[in-house]
Amino acid sequence: MGAWGPGSFENDDASDWADDLEGSSGIGMIKEALKTVEKHKFPESPDCCIALAAAEVVAAAKGKPSNDFPDGLREWLAAHKDVNAIKALDKTTVNVINKVQLKSELKEVWEESDDWLAWSKVLNDLQNRLKA
Question: How do the domains of the chain map onto residue ranges?
């Protein structure tokens, strides 16, 4: 994982996924990102990074974007007609975040880092925005 910070888009996997989403026309990529983590007992870091980026899109669709939510994704959301379908993923998204926080390779990577608390704060903030 090429990470440069604890934010949901501060790694290569999430950044690349966001670029791909900007070029897509539906919510399939968001659903797939969440489903990939949901179906594994111990999801791998890249899948978790992508799922967290997808979770940020769901939060933004609910009107609760992070401060560093990419402008390109803001434009993608504004142009999307099925924002309500994205919003409907909020419960699944919260479950996925819980899984990443409790039992994932990404959690183990961050636990060994000096930025563990900062990463935990980012995920807690994301969950709170989704539940609001």
Answer: 12-131
Q: What is the pTM of this model?
A: 0.95
Cα angle 31-17-62, degrees, rounded to a multiple of 5: 50
β-partners of residue 3 are 11
Burial call 31-52: b when 16+ CB within 10 Å, e when fewer: bebbebbeeeeebebbbbbbbb
Q: Is the dihedral of CA 65, 24, 82, 45 positive or negative?
A: negative
pLDDT tens for each residue of 41-67: 999 999 999 999 999 999 999 999 999
